[in-house]
TrEMBL record:
Gene3D superfamilies: Cytochrome P450. The keyword Metal-binding applies. The keyword Transferase does not apply. It comes from Cynara cardunculus var. scolymus (Globe artichoke). Belongs to the cytochrome P450 family. This is Cytochrome P450.
Length: 140
């Protein structure tokens, strides 16, 4: 009876062990590769607060080192860029995917109201049409 239990335990143990090895290998292949590349870290909001008196110089220095960089915030991350091709991509080529969102709307609403600088989507499109019409009328 003891030999049949040893055989049973080893016959179950070996396939389970092999299954575990295959699973570990699959996970390492799946998650071991870097699928996303991130821009370099330029610092945190605390670095910007420390350099508040020379913030323009601090950000300019970071922009000369890295064309695009991240700044970490306790609540969200921010990406800064001085690369003209990325700016064109965001503002012209793929504008619809880069909305301002509720956070920016809440911050700027007191200053700009519901104007072109604070709204997204259809409201933005309507503001843009009005701006173009006013611009054409003023040239005529």
């Amino acid at each position: 009876m003891a030999t049949s239990m040893d055989f049973l335990s080893t016959s179950i143990f070996i396939p389970l062990f092999l299954l575990l090895l295959v699973n570990i290998y699959h996970q390492s292949q799946k998650y071991g590769r870097k699928t996303k590349t991130y821009h370099p870290c330029g610092g945190t909001k605390f670095n910007q607060l420390i350099n508040y008196r020379t913030l323009h110089d601090y950000n300019t220095n970071l922009a000369t080192i890295h064309k695009t960089y991240r700044v970490f915030n306790p609540f969200c991350g921010e990406i800064y860029t001085s690369d003209p091709s990325i700016v064109e991509y965001i503002l012209k080529t793929n504008f619809k995917n880069y909305g301002k969102g509720a956070h920016i709307n809440n911050i700027l609403k007191d200053l700009f109201g519901d104007g072109i600088f604070t709204v997204d989507g259809d409201e933005w499109r309507e503001q843009r049409k009005n701006l173009v019409m006013v611009s054409k009328a003023s040239k005529a």
